[in-house]
Amino acid sequence: MPRLASHLGRLTSEGALEVFARARALERQGRSIIHLELGEPEFHPAPDVVEAARKALSDGRDRYGPSEGIPPLREAVAEYLARIRHLQYDAKNIFIAPGCKTVLMMCMLCVIEPGCEVLYPDPGFPMYTSATHGLGAQPVPFRLLEENKFQPDPNEIAAKITPRTRVILLNSPGNPTGTVYDRRALAAIADLARRHDLWVVSDEIYARIIYGGEYESIAALPGMAERTLVVDGFSKSFAMTGWRLGYAVAPPEVVSALTLLAINSYSCAPEFIQRGGIEALRDSAGAVAKMIAEYTRRRASFTSALNRIPGFRCRPPEGAFYAWVNIAGTGLSADELCRVLLEEAGVAAIPGEAFGAAGKDFIRFSFAGAAALLDEAACRMESVASRWIATATAATSREKQ
Ligand code: PLP
After folding, report:
1. 246 CB under 6 A from ligand 1?
2. Taking the CA atoms of the chain, what radius of gyration do you get in angstroms?
3. How many CA atoms does the CB half-sphere of 163 hold within 13 Å?
4. Which of 242, 243, 245, 193 has the alpha carbon at shortest distance from 218?
5. Residues 292, 362: one domain?
6. For residue 28, what is the domain's CATH number?
7. Is 243 a pocket residue for ligand 1 (Cβ < 6 Å)?
8. pLDDT digits (tens, 9 = 90+) for 224-241
9. pLDDT at residue number 392
10. Ligand 1 geometric centre to CA of 386 (Å)
11. Ligand 1: centre distance to CA 100 (Å)
12. Which residues of the chain fall short of a pLDDT of 50?
């Protein structure tokens, strides 16, 4: 076989998918596994969303459509963002794509060039570093540290800006930490972006899933709309992972560039899926509020259960549906601990380093999926804690002295 293109060697996979593959292999051997590795909601979209897509399909809405998305969905997204997120945009600012990841990659293609530097949160969504490397640029981490409540530190970001810096990637609420960036951090980062003439790519896929307060987007701050590309989608807020529907909110010039990329790749997102998206935004069944009420319940009970396990420490997330657990007290590495949890307890979690070097002492659980099994997962983990309990007890008594 001839050689594959070398830029492929710069892309990396996702830790969640690797853990999932091992968990499935164990299941094929007859083992019972509780899947807490994937950020996949167990909910499905409300019946009227499914009906809207079904009707569109039977009405023959299965043709090529506009590459930037159908006008009624672009208008509905603009109206939704004004209603839910206080963002004032027109339909001409909205670009529809098949999936949030797709549109994130396309936005990165629009603003990242070989040789430039891209600031990104560590720990963070693995695609940020993978795609940056893939585009021949240099990812530069800013850390989200536990002692700083996992908030970004604008001083660290300022110190890492160089003449080659082009882009700051943000993700609030963040995967994996669940941090909702506070107003002070957002204002300071916006100030840096304006002063150094940087693009901001703001991944807001979890913006609907917050546990208190109102969501604030950096795009709403003065002077930021012209330099911010917001990316979002339907997977998490509307439990539509497999529908592959996402969007970007950007200046019209960027929407034109994204449209050109679409013309040169997939042509258009399927219209019948977009029609389902319009119904999801309407949310006449109040499905989003019900889903968030359920996540709120799980967040409280699962994080308390995790904090009862010796050597585990977990702040309840401010948003998204992940528990980000400091496991340094177990004395085991995150890799070894995840191996014990999967192979011996049948609980699948992801070692924190899959999200960056700052995740070394952490593991991530998703509570989006297996609601009925979260208590059972905690019991199973407690039952194997004898493997590290002596270390954890010694560490606790050292802390108390
Ligand atoms: N951004 C973040 C932070 C995510 O966690 C995910 C999915 O897990 C995505 C983007 C991609 O979303 P989608 O499944 O809609 O492509």
Report:
1. yes
2. 21
3. 0
4. 193
5. yes
6. 3.90.1150.10
7. no
8. 999 999 999 999 999 999
9. 66
10. 36
11. 6
12. none
